[in-house]
Amino acid sequence: MPLGFGSHDLLVEAVCDGPDWGFRLEAADAGGEAEADTVNLVLPHPVEGQAGPWLYLGTFLASAAPEAAAAAVMDTPFGEGAESCFWRVDRPGGAVRPYLESTLYGRWNYPLGVTLYGLLCTGIVLDDSHYTAYSRGHIEQCTRLHEYALWDTGRYGAPGINQQLALIDSLDDCGSFGAAMLAAHSVQPLPGAAGAAEYIARYIHGTQSRDEAGALYRTRGTTDFMQGTMWCDDLYMSTPFLVRYYQLTGNAEYLDDAVAQFLHYRARLFQPELGIMHHVYDYKFGKPNGVPWGRGNGWVLFSLTELLEILPEQHPQQPELLDYFRELCEGYLRLQDAAGLWHQVLTDAETYAEASCSSMFVYAFARGARRGWLLKPHPYAAAAIRGWHALAEYCIDKQGNVYGVCRGSGYSFNKLYYKEQLTWQLNDTHGMGIVLLAGIEALELTRELEAQKL
User: Which of 319, 276, 309 minimizes the C-alpha distance to 294?
Assistant: First the structure.
């Protein structure tokens, strides 16, 4: 095999047809004599603890052996059934197992889902591949290894990667990142995304707990107090994925489920006198908690815009959902403060101005005005522009750091929990992506308003 200068992949397929088998490699110079210094063998992928240059795969029955050309990858198991396997090193029990050390890049979790969605859309709107490539690369690292992560879980009891997806036990684990994944997949197909999406759809549609009416709710929690609750956050953890999965598959069952969830949650959590939402309904006590948490309300309106964007006009519930969107927008418009922001507890101006809910109201107002969903769009367009300017002035510095995003929450019937214990964090991933999305919608709205003046 004549080799040119540079790096080359070397894969040896050894066929065993008797008790003595193996292979021998020698590097030769042009004259045919051994010249060991001309070739330096190195590991094709970094493997902690491995000293030699070889990785091994197999053995396989002849009927189950992969094609050699398809075997030189490190993101999928090979073989079938009990004989399936992954790469190993030349040591007893020396299995190779992918794992992730990074706390952000390549990790699957819900706040990163909305962050990556914001980055993806930013790259598309600005026509800047830097942002789209980063977002897609992060998501693809997860999707490529989805099949392996499931195999790894079955083989070892817990996966070294994609832990939340492989071990789904809540909507938090799958819906947000899954929606971002499908958004990226719709722009350019991602390896493994269709399989991961099917896995998520089966969980939401067939495994996640539902009440007697079919509403998604939480039977488990990190504490006993959180068991048996419906959180308005979970509209975001479910419906954007469901409508995108409907787009992917054409199966209207998923779209209808998303529509039904909004109607179920409105019945339990909507405050008609204010036109806003409670944060949580507690089935143990048969009542909502009475606190309109900012980001929870933001998730509701943001997710409703994601549904309305895709929902066919002829859908029987479309008029009802449009009326619901308008009711919510009217309620939130009344609560915008003098600076242009909204607060951690929406009805308490003494709580801090919160960036993530402010961003979601800006996003929804701008989109509603642009799409014609609002009967009187001008007050909402003005509120969206004013809100974006306030975010830029008070919540984003010159280096792009984002301030005022509430950290991850629990819930309480006591407003003081939200006011005093749920503090904000710098550059919290719960809010960075949605700030980008608010900026996109504000930019598009500004362009449309300027075009109308011309």
Answer: 276
